[in-house]
């Protein structure tokens, strides 16, 4: 009789948060002339709002506002998991 132990890791989710929206690309609009900016990549959750309008015809200072429905937003959640070893005994019988 041969006895071998097989170990396997089993994960159990103990906590899960609700959906958290996370912005990936931001689009801004000038409040003076209505021009839209090119999509701006967001790094580490920080949005760098443009200080002035990017169009040569306008160049208004502090006139940009975030446009949510043109921006790219991803839903995410955080999960907390624990891992516990699970032991199984397998017995082989040779005849």
TrEMBL record:
<keyword id="KW-0067">ATP-binding</keyword>
<keyword id="KW-0547">Nucleotide-binding</keyword>
<dbReference type="GO" id="GO:0005524">
    <property type="term" value="F:ATP binding"/>
</dbReference>
<dbReference type="GO" id="GO:0003678">
    <property type="term" value="F:DNA helicase activity"/>
</dbReference>
<dbReference type="GO" id="GO:0006260">
    <property type="term" value="P:DNA replication"/>
</dbReference>
<dbReference type="GO" id="GO:0000347">
    <property type="term" value="C:THO complex"/>
</dbReference>
<keyword id="KW-0235">DNA replication</keyword>
<keyword id="KW-0238">DNA-binding</keyword>
<dbReference type="InterPro" id="IPR012340">
    <property type="entry name" value="NA-bd_OB-fold"/>
</dbReference>
<comment type="function">
    <text>Probable component of the MCM2-7 complex (MCM complex) that may function as a DNA helicase and which is essential to undergo a single round of replication initiation and elongation per cell cycle in eukaryotic cells.</text>
</comment>
<dbReference type="Pfam" id="PF17207">
    <property type="entry name" value="MCM_OB"/>
</dbReference>
<keyword id="KW-0539">Nucleus</keyword>
<protein>
    <recommendedName>
        <fullName>DNA helicase</fullName>
        <ecNumber>3.6.4.12</ecNumber>
    </recommendedName>
</protein>
<dbReference type="GO" id="GO:0016787">
    <property type="term" value="F:hydrolase activity"/>
</dbReference>
<dbReference type="InterPro" id="IPR033762">
    <property type="entry name" value="MCM_OB"/>
</dbReference>
<dbReference type="GO" id="GO:0003677">
    <property type="term" value="F:DNA binding"/>
</dbReference>
<keyword id="KW-0378">Hydrolase</keyword>
<comment type="similarity">
    <text>Belongs to the MCM family.</text>
</comment>
<feature type="domain" description="MCM OB">
    <location>
        <begin position="6"/>
        <end position="76"/>
    </location>
</feature>
<keyword id="KW-0347">Helicase</keyword>
